[in-house]
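Practice set, problem 2.
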Amino acid sequence: MNPYTLTLLRHGEIDHDGRLIGLTDLPLTEHGQQQLARSWQRISSLAPVTAIASSPLQRCREFAVRQALSGSLALKVDPRFAEIDFGDWDGQPLAELEHQHPDWRQQLADGGFTPPGGESYEQFRTRVLAGLSEWMTTARGSHRLLVTHGGVITVLMAELLGTDFSVAKLMTVQRGGFVQLSMLEDHPAYLLRLESSCVD
C-alpha cells in the first residue's frame, strides 16, 4: 500500500454555553463555519483531498457533505466517528461537573469511570478504531480527511502515534483546527503538522 496523508479536522465553534457536549446535536455558529472554511482552504492548498469521512452530527456532517458535493468526493458518514456518549451528563454545565467530580476526565481516560448512562472510554475507543479501520479499507487516494470531534481525534492520535491518551491530549486540536499524519500500512504514523484555525 502506498503512503497517504490522514487529516483529522475538528468541527468549528458551537454555542455550547459552558455545557458538556457529546452527542447533543448542535449546529456550528457562523464563526465555526468560517473556521472550517478557512481550514479547508489551508488543507486543500497542502494537497487535494481525495476522500472524506464524517461524524453524523450536524456540526461535522453539514460541512463534510458540502465539500464532498463541491469536489465530487467519496463521502462516508459513520456514527462511529461521533463524540463520546456522556449519557446523563450530556448538556450539563461543565462548572458543576468539575466541582462535583474534579478528576472525571482523567478517570474516564484511565478506564476507571463511565458517565452514568454513557459509554466507557474503552467502548468509545473500540468503536472509533473500528470505524477508522473499515474506512481505510475502502477509502482511496493519497489524502483522506475525517471531520470529527476533539475526543475522537485524541483517541486516534494516541493509537496511531503509539502513545497514551493523556499524552495525546496535550496535543489538543482546537475547534476548527486540524492535525495531519503520514500513514503507511504496518508502520507507525508520524506527525506532519498540527494547526489551529486561522480565524480569530
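Problem 2, part (b): a different protein.
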Amino acid sequence: MSSETTSSATTAPAAPGTGAHTPEAVGMIGDARRRIDDLDGRIIGLVQERMAVSAVIQRERIASGGRRVHLSREMEILAHYRDQLGKPGTALAMTLLELSRGRV
C-alpha cells in the first residue's frame, strides 16, 4: 500500500494550476506564462493603435465623400491573414476589422 501512496505522490502536480509534475516544469511554465502575458499586453496595445489609425482613415474617407468601410481593402486584409495564419487567421482578421470599424 505504501508503494501506491508513493506512486500517487510522484504524479500529483507540483503546483496547482500548471498541470506540471516537477518543480522544473512549474518554473518553465511560470516563465512562459509571464512571457505570454507580456505578449498579450503588447498585442492589445497594437490592436488599440490599429483601431486609432483605422478611425483616422475612416474619418478622412467620409470627409472626402467616401464610405466608412472599404470592402475591397477588407478583402485584402482577410486574404493576408489567411495566407499567413491559415483559416484561423481569417477569424482573427474578421475580429480586428470589426474592432477597427468603429461605431456607426
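Answer key, part (b): Residues 23-63 form the longest helix (41 residues). The chain has one domain: 21-100.
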